[in-house]
Design a protein that fits this description.
The chain is mostly helical. Helices cover 40% and strands 5% of the residues. Strands 1-5-7-6 form a four-stranded antiparallel sheet. Strands 2-3 form a two-stranded antiparallel sheet. The chain has a two-stranded antiparallel sheet with strand order 4-8.
């Protein structure tokens, strides 16, 4: 069996089969646990399910070091933000996330303390947990809707995990469908399980689509019991994200519109969700409530970005070109402070804050309804329906800038280089404006490099944008959409334990180009 899976099963996979959201993570080997009891009925099955969600924000279980930058979903979103062109790290600080920002992680694939190992183990752990739950579908007792609620989430977790693995360890789907993706596992795995070879991107996305469609089907008609759970509306939101990446504009628009309706959430004025730290805000679709005894302390999103902690040593700032695109009446300007003492190049962020620094508290927001409006707007625009695209963009901007007028924009032209989005040549492109508003609205949240990849763009960082010299990457091919810079290397441990994967033929390029 491949080694990463072995670690997952004997170390952290079972946190899903033994831990509830209120307890410490249990590391008892799965093979010795009474999985039949835990998965015997829908009520008991919420225990392993909540364990999976708990691990999505708990630091330290995926790796033996660098724990400060391994706090689950929010860490991986922050990683993908600093890899792009909108979030500037004003200084190296203690080094956390700096090596992501300067693309100096790939050569560390032999170590269990760096990004490749961390991501691989986390997502495959969640997949392995989901597979155990899905395998019990035919035998699980309970009310039919209660069983559907459990199973729908398991399918959604598996779809989400494979989707994020593809975005981290493979090239973009649209242009590289036949290229290697990641290994597929759809059943329970044990220490004796044979490791799988890399499937093609097409095969992985076929599984992702099958899983997310099954999740949507099962979750329809159920009620989201907790904001940390993937309910019906969140599953639709994930489906919209996946379809957007696949450039399936019709499906993306349809799923986003349905997600808006099903969520019952509303676009909030900026002042009503200040700090981005509460899942109680009425625009939050999915997130994690962080209570005092579960706070990651220094290993947390807010520790990394809030200037009350590491954000003072490694300030997180906005690209000046992006900031200057906002009009003077755009209320989102409040998310950045030009006069902050930490604004050394770009302007220091004021968007994310601890809700209580004394107790290290601050909730994690993983999906807001505003994102669904932006997905709908973008997908409609790609599909040539400018009227619908303007409608959804205008709905968002009505809560952001009273002077915004969508009628001046039309068409779907978009430059190859992201820095060219600010030039006059694209000043009236509707798609260009939608993407710029997405960059502003979801700054720090959506994982900027994922958008650059799926839109087949390249970027160039400049001093004029506010980037320090150490982050400019002037000799690196960030302007090449076909670059391997943002494709992570597969951890060596996978090759050491998987007879069906060969490091000489299956490893992603360590360099920037193949």
């Amino acid at each position: 069996m491949n080694k990463i899976f072995k670690y997952a099963l004997l170390g952290a996979v079972v946190l899903g089969l033994s831990a509830c959201s209120e307890d410490q993570l249990n590391t008892t080997p799965t093979d010795s646990m009474s999985g039949e009891t835990l998965l015997a009925n829908a009520t008991n099955a919420l225990v392993p399910l909540n364990g999976i969600y708990r691990s999505m924000y708990t630091p330290g279980w995926t790796t033996t070091g660098n724990i400060a930058q391994t706090f689950g979903i929010s860490a991986y979103n922050l990683m993908a933000e600093v890899m792009g062109d909108d979030m500037i790290m004003g200084a190296m600080g203690s080094g956390w996330f700096w090596y992501d920002a300067v693309y100096n992680m790939k050569s560390f694939y032999t170590r269990s303390t760096f990004r490749s190992y961390d991501l691989w183990k986390a997502y495959y752990t969640w997949i392995a947990n989901a597979n155990y739950i899905i395998a019990a579908q035919s035998t699980m007792a309970g009310d039919a809707k209660a069983v559907d609620y459990v199973m729908g989430q398991a399918y959604a977790i598996r779809a989400y995990s494979y989707f994020m693995l593809e975005q981290s360890f493979a090239r973009n789907y649209a242009n590289h469908k036949t290229e290697p993706g990641v290994p597929l596992y759809t059943g329970p795995t044990f220490t004796s399980t044979t490791g799988q070879p890399r499937a093609t991107n097409q095969e992985v996305y076929d599984q992702i689509n099958s899983d997310i469609n099954k999740a949507v089907e099962l979750l329809q008609g159920t009620s989201q019991q907790d904001v940390s759970h993937i309910g019906y509306a969140v599953a639709l939101g994930l489906k919209a994200r996946i379809a957007l990446t696949e450039q399936d504009w019709t499906t993306a628009a349809d799923a986003a519109v349905k997600a808006i309706a099903a969520s019952g959430k509303e676009i909030l004025p900026v002042k009503d969700f200040a700090g981005m730290n509460s899942v109680k805000a009425s625009n939050v679709m999915w997130g994690a409530k962080i209570v005092t005894d579960q706070a990651g302390k220094y290993a947390s999103l807010f520790a990394m970005v809030d200037t009350l902690y590491h954000g003072s040593r490694a300030p997180k700032q906005i690209n000046l070109d992006l900031y200057n695109h906002m009009s003077r009446t755009d209320t989102r300007r409040a998310w950045w402070d030009p006069n902050s003492k930490y604004s050394t190049g770009g302007y220091e962020q004021d968007k994310f804050h601890f809700s209580n620094i004394a107790t290290w508290e601050g909730d994690y927001v993983w999906m807001r309804v505003e994102e669904m409006y932006l997905i709908a707007a973008e997908a409609y625009c790609h599909a040539g329906d400018d009227a619908q695209a303007r409608q959804y963009l205008s709905a968002l901007m009505a809560k952001r800038d009273p002077n915004f007028d969508a009628s001046q924009y039309s068409g779907s032209s978009l430059p190859t280089l992201t820095s060219d989005q600010f030039t006059g040549a694209y000043a009236h492109s509707l798609l260009n404006e939608i993407i710029l508003q997405r960059r502003i609205e979801l700054w720090g949240e959506a994982g900027r490099i994922y958008d650059i990849r799926r839109l087949e763009q390249g970027f160039r960082r400049t001093s004029a944008q506010g980037f320090p010299t150490g982050e400019l990457l002037t000799t690196r091919p960030t302007d090449n959409p076909e670059s391997y810079m943002w494709v992570l290397t597969i951890p060596q441990a996978e090759f050491d334990g998987n007879a069906n994967m060969n490091a000489s033929t299956d490893q992603n390029p360590v360099g920037d180009l193949k």
